[in-house]
Design goal:
Elements lengths: L2 E8 L5 E5 L7 E3 L1 H4 L7 E9 L5 E10 L5 E8 L2 E6 L8 E2 L13 E8 L8 E9 L6 H9 L8 H8 L14 E2 L6 E4 L8 E8 L9 E9 L10 H9 L3 E3 L2 E3 L4 H7 L7 E12 L4 E12 L2 E4 H9 L4 H4 L5 H21 L8 E6 L5 E7 L3 H23 L6 E3 L5 H14 L11 H10 L6 H11 L4 E3 L23 H14 L17 E3 L2 E3 L5 H35 L6 E10 L2 E6 L5 E5 L8 E4 L4 E4 L5 E2 L4 E10 L4 E6 L4 H14 L1 H21 L15 H12 L12
Parallel strand pairs: 11-18, 12-19, 28-33
Antiparallel strand pairs: 1-2, 1-4, 2-3, 4-5, 6-7, 6-9, 7-8, 9-10, 13-14, 14-17, 15-16, 17-18, 20-21, 22-23, 24-25, 26-27, 26-32, 27-28, 29-30, 30-31, 32-33
Helix pairs in contact: 2-14, 3-4, 8-9, 10-12, 15-16, 16-17
């Protein structure tokens, strides 16, 4: 049997898998017995010892190559005189024993960080010692403290970084102004969310004549981006910490920034009425939305105003309203920005960029860090305006670098893999839409389908399947284009305060403007070819191309880490919130369909939970992978993404970040279901549904304590039997056992 190397991924039920380094074939299954001697995230060498009936490999651990040295977070417990820590991440599968003299000053029930002193074996549990006491589980913000350690998010700047930040000036110095174009008289403005604290982009637009023909008149669009690279130099402590973080991490009520606050919220933030250093992308855009010309240059700007999205949306909707009255002098500039946005939309439609309308949510917390409400983020014209302006600047930066044949980090989004393409083609064929994607799909094909189905009741399901067929966007030194945006080359230039790839792009552009080349290896960053140890990238010598590829892997991995940590905190908060609603009923819509049940998102709350397949009623449901639906064999009831349901909150697992629902069919919902079933499948199927409802109603009555005695052996005298018998007569069936399997 073959041997493989990989990383152990534990499962909360006790078994685990070896995720192979080579990503070939399937992951190796590890039994509970095999998992006794290893821990989640260990790197191991394993041998394939057998295959199950579906051809999936099972492995045996031969050697432990590396044990993670990162702390394990959990709650300290004292049981039967023994101290132990129950890991917060249930994938570890084992409690860790703590000697009495190794609990530090922690008390039972507190959340602690521990390090292992003795690894597990086939015959003994792991042993550790407390290295940090985080506090009580109910302390405000504890979920964030757990997440940053659980996902190894760097959350403390080094002393050297803090010292360097403290030595930075508070304002622009005369020496900083040299060799820069002064744009302080240009009415650049920032447009951000209400809760934004750092402003890394400012915009301005005015009409411009392009060429000699009047019909070619267009716009001059200026996008000014904070010049972080002026203050953050390769090899300095701030740069080292910024590279390690790779991105800012956003949690409800808290941000872990990539840069120290003095830079992110101060010196580099484009605060209103303060001179700031910026890198500018100055563009000429035709009335058709095509970028006619562009240039980059370092500048000094002064933001003339700090707008919010809601404020700009209100002004664009009513230029005589109260919001507009406060900003009279800037209204013409905002209208120009809106006009160039509309022009850029024409070009977006022409190139066929994919644009799905999705609902993003925002968690609003109270003073104690608990969820107060969850509200949808509405994408206004102001959001879209800024988005298109930033896309234009990013495209220009990619084009500039590509034309100069200089290595850099591109933002790459590739089309669907052959497997995902085939799955989507089969799904669209099963729907009978008369629309599909080709074997070499283009973004415009996706957009045509999205536009054609937007008014269908199952539009959400179709959009979801279109999205799932595409690959994740990554950072890489090899330009493969951006499929979703339909760009041949695309980079990130517009957010160097919070994204390290943008900072690298700024350095490349500055070098090119000076007629030079930027070499990653020349700085102290020394990012090297990819050698993976767990989730980290180890640096080894290599050529320039390999350095950029390694930097791309590092930034992509840490982007995923930030997303996972944010989702973990949001899931914890939602579980904590839903514990207060146990037993309550809500309306909702199916958000995903799987072989084991339905995920349902609650109306108004935007909280998602699972309705297990055993909660769908007393019959057998089949999962149709092509149609992405669950269908009842007897009743014909179908559940697809977008199906309306009513559920009850039945269980909340705070540790597992899971919410379970139970399906509710009562009163009006039964009538609606029966009506829909009759319309879809005819009266017989509707009667079958009524039978099921009658049986369930009778069962509920029996459980509530309804009692009746059978008289003279007459079975119909029993209320449950009577209801079942009546239901069978209504459906035209002879008395006997109910059909279907649970």
């Amino acid at each position: 049997m073959s041997e493989v190397e990989g990383t152990v991924q534990g499962h909360r039920d006790g078994h685990g898998f070896v995720v192979r380094d080579d990503r070939q074939l399937g992951d190796l299954y590890l039994s509970q017995q095999e998992m006794r001697a290893v821990l989640h995230r260990d790197r191991v060498k394993a041998r394939v010892i057998r295959y199950d009936r579906k051809g999936r490999p099972e492995g045996k651990v031969l050697e432990i190559l590396e044990r993670k040295k990162s702390p394990i977070i959990g709650r300290l417990l004292h049981e039967s005189g023994v101290w132990l820590v129950a890991p917060e991440d249930k994938r570890y599968g084992q409690d860790i024993l703590i000697p009495k003299n190794a609990i530090a000053n922690a008390t039972a029930g507190q959340v602690v960080a521990i390090e292992l002193t003795e690894p597990p074996s086939m015959y003994s549990q792991p042993v550790g010692r407390v290295t940090e006491v985080l506090g009580e589980i109910d302390d405000p913000g504890m979920e964030i403290e757990i997440a940053v350690r659980k996902y190894e998010v760097p959350h403390r700047f080094s002393p050297e970084t803090l010292a360097q930040a403290a030595g930075l000036p508070d304002k622009i110095r005369p020496v900083d102004r040299k060799n820069r174009i002064d744009l302080t008289d240009v009415a650049l403005v920032t447009i951000d969310g209400e809760d934004a604290r750092d402003f890394d982009d400012a915009v301005y637009c005015e009409p411009a004549k392009i060429g000699r023909v009047k019909t070619n008149n267009g716009f001059r669009l200026i996008v000014a981006i904070a010049d972080v690279s002026h203050y953050v130099k390769p090899g300095e402590p701030i740069d080292d910490d910024a590279y390690e973080r790779a991105t800012s991490v956003y949690f409800p009520r808290r941000v872990i920034p990539m840069l120290p606050e003095k830079l992110s919220n101060g010196l580099c933030s484009l605060n209103p009425n303060e001179d700031r250093l910026a890198m500018v992308c100055d563009m000429l855009i035709t009335s058709a939305g095509e970028i006619h010309a562009y240039q980059f240059y370092p500048s000094i700007i002064c933001s003339h105003a700090r707008f919010t999205y809601n404020e700009v949306a209100a002004i664009l909707a009513n230029t005589r309203g109260p919001e507009a009255a406060k900003r009279k002098e800037l209204i013409p500039d905002l209208l120009n920005l809106h006009e160039v946005y509309r022009a850029l939309l024409k070009e977006r439609a022409k190139r066929g960029a994919v644009d799905f309308e999705t609902t993003e949510t925002q968690i609003v917390c109270d003073e104690n860090g608990r969820i107060e409400k969850i509200v949808p983020r509405t994408r206004t014209e102001a959001h879209k305006l800024i988005e298109e302006a930033m896309l234009a600047a990013n495209v220009c930066s990619a084009d500039f670098i590509e034309r100069s044949k200089h290595p850099a980090l591109y933002r790459v989004h590739e089309g669907p893999t052959p497997e995902k393409r085939t799955l989507l083609q089969n799904y669209l064929k099963a729907l009978g839409l008369g629309l599909s994607i080709s074997d070499d799909p283009k973004p415009a094909e996706y957009q045509v389908i999205a536009a054609a189905v937007k008014d269908r009741p199952d539009a959400a399901q179709i959009h979801t399947m279109l999205l799932r067929s595409m690959q994740q966007a990554i950072y890489t030194g090899t330009n493969s284009g951006h499929f979703g945006l339909a760009y041949e080359a695309y980079t990130h230039f517009t957010s160097p305060i919070r994204r390290y790839p943008d900072l690298l792009v700024h350095r490349v552009i500055k070098a090119l403007l000076g007629g030079k080349r930027y070499h990653l290896a020349s700085g102290a960053i020394e990012v090297q070819p990819t050698v993976r140890k767990g989730s980290k990238v180890v640096r080894t010598p290599g050529n320039e191309g390999e350095l950029w590829e390694a930097a791309g892997v590092h930034c992509s991995v840490n982007e995923r880490r930030a997303d996972e940590a944010s989702r973990d905190v949001e899931a914890w908060l939602k579980c904590r919130y839903m514990r207060e609603h146990l037993g309550e009923e809500f309306g909702g819509a199916v958000s995903a369909v799987t072989s084991f049940g339905l995920f349902v998102q609650l109306d108004g709350l935007y909280v998602e939970g699972l309705v297990h397949i055993t909660e769908l009623g007393g019959e057998y449901y089949r999962f149709d992978e092509i149609r992405q639906e669950l269908r009842g064999e007897r009743s014909g009831i179908r559940y697809v993404v977008g199906s309306r349901v009513r559920v009850q909150v039945s269980r909340v697992d705070l540790d597992g970040r899971k919410i379970d629902f139970r399906m509710v069919r009562e009163g009006e919902d039964d009538a609606v279901t029966a009506r829909a079933r009759r319309d879809k499948f005819g009266d017989k199927a509707a009667a079958a549904g009524n039978e099921l409802s009658a049986i369930k109603a009778a069962d509920r009555a029996a459980k509530a304590g309804t009692k009746a005695k059978s008289r003279g052996g007459d079975k119909s005298a029993h209320p449950v039997r009577a209801a079942k018998s009546a239901a069978r007569k209504a459906s035209g069936r002879a008395p006997g056992k109910a059909t279907g399997r649970r």
